[in-house]
Amino acid sequence: MKKGFFCVLIACLFSLPSLAQTIEHINPATLSKSPNYSQAVVTTGGRTIYVSGMIAVDKDGKLVGKGDFAAQARQVLNNIKLAVEAAGGTIANIVKIDTYMVNMNDLTTYRAIRLDFLKDLPNKPASTTVQVTRLVQDDYLLEVDAIAVVQ
Q: Considering the domain 20-150, what is its CATH architecture?
């Protein structure tokens, strides 16, 4: 009798619908609101995708945009998109972006390119941007990693 009960219990558990994925962007009135990012993002359900730091290289590993920050930023964000899509998600599933730049004077350019990259999203992911003294190779001007949550 116990064996039959556990078989039924296991069958019931596998037949339950999976938890619905939700992504909630939090921008409390007690903090400043930015058009560039959300102050916090809460997710439930779904699978988490951790995207490694992307640099400005194409699929063959060749640097794109040597000395051209804007070209590198577009390539890096496209690489993020390709990685998320390969894991079954879309840009809309990105909940956190971390950016490492070698020159904070490029921040205005980066913000414009990132806003264009995220233009179809009503709420932007949580975000951190910092200046670093160097990346893995001298010709790389930025590196970006991301976290996405998909159903």
A: 2-Layer Sandwich (3.30)
> What number of other Cβ atoms are within 10 A of residue 70's Cβ?
14
Transcribe the chain into DSSP letters. -HHHHHHHHHHHHHHSPPPPPEEEEE--TTS---SS-BSEEEEESSEEEEEEEE-SB-TTS-BSSTT-HHHHHHHHHHHHHHHHHHTT--GGGEEEEEEEES-GGGHHHHHHHHHHHTTT-SSPPEEEEEE-S--SSTT--EEEEEEEEE-
For 63-118, the pLDDT digits (tens) are: 999 999 999 999 999 999 999 999 999 999 999 999 999 999 999 999 999 999 99
Cα angle value 28/30/31 (rounded, 5°): 75
* Token pair of 8 as six digits: 């039924």
Q: What is the pTM of this model?
A: 0.81
Query: Domain segments of the chain: what residues?
Result: 20-150
